Amino acid sequence: MTPVELSRTVLHAVRRAVDEGELAVAVVPERVVVAPPGPGGCGDYATNVALQLARPAGQPAPAVAELLRTRLLRTDGISDVVVTGPGFLNISLAGGADARLVRDILRAGPRYGHSDALAGQTIELHAASEVRALVLMDSVARVLRSQGARPQLHCTRPPEGAWVRVLGVPEDIRVRPGTAPLRPVPAPADPTPLGRDAARWALLHPAPHDRPRIGDEHLVQRESNPLFRVRYAHARSRAVVRNAADLGFGPEPGPVNASALHQALADHPRVLAATAAHRAPDRLARHLVAVADALAPLLPSVLPLGDEKPSAAHRARLALAEAAGTVLAGGLTLLGIDAPEHL
Asked: For residue 1, is pLDDT > 70?
């Protein structure tokens, strides 16, 4: 069960409690936020939805939490729910949740994290006629499409030819005079000499209110370069899959002691939704760095060493590495950056 699915599960429990008269609230929240437990918490995820509902329901938060706890315990995929503090719900997922997450990612492929949350919505984007603003708008549009929206792109004058040819800025942006809500701090220099991938990363990785750095540091192939770390992690994930096939075994999701990587992968749908909502591709870029950094310690243990025979543990680690590479490839594509198989 991913965080998004768990959020929907908790929200469903709230709605059922309201429909059946156990909670008397006039307005049901549109969504429920779940996150890793804070200090004093336990389990896999926690939510403060009971505290939010307590005053409207006219009940103490612990009573609301206990009511929801009873309902959640009857849900498949949830093994335990503990109420802590003033009314936090701490939720433990049933065993095998990590393996199910990996299966879900491998089944969805690069579309993992895509949703229909914005289906049917036409969203107009207006950007300043400046290279960083247009690259940012293009990436935002890609992420919006991944959530089901139909973005329409506007700027005050046509993009320059080099921005289209080199950076992949759409040529068919509609020209419309007016205000430009997407107005990040402009690029201090022409990014096109960096080439498409490094230039787009240089423009998208910093937050829109931060000044981007346009320099050769985005081209160096060393760990100090976040783009290199992301693309290298992806290339290595593909390499271990190829090497495992040569050794005669393939991926099979199972238990792996890699909680940071599982958490980063589970967060991917939430990151895409937040990137779309806040028009902030830097959130996705930083998330990909987190996935790559969490994947790095796993990779040396994926393949058997010496005369060692492939085991269930190797197959499970291989499946997790392939899932991480899939998320990295999908995320880079939404940023308009290539995810090479070899690096």
From this structure: no
pLDDT at 178: 67
Amino acid making up residue 69: R
How far apart, in whole angstroms, are the C-alpha atoms of residue 15 and residue 17? 5
In the sheet that holds 45-47, the strands lie side by side as 45-47, 88-93, 78-84
Q: What is the pLDDT of residue 95?
A: 61
Rounded-to-integer distance, Cα 305 and Cα 67, Å: 52
Model pLDDT for residues 156-199, shown as the tens digit of each residue: 888 999 999 999 999 889 888 766 789 999 999 999 999 999 99
Contact present, 282 and 205 (Cβ < 8 Å): yes
- How far is residue 79's CA from residue 201's CA, in Å, rounded to a whole number? 41
The token pair that represents 62 in the structure block: 């612990």
By the 8 A CB rule, do 148 and 117 touch? yes
Only one residue has tokens 């293009």, namely: 138
92-96, 142-146, 332-336: the lowest-pLDDT one: 92-96
Neighbours of 160 (CB within 10 A): 16
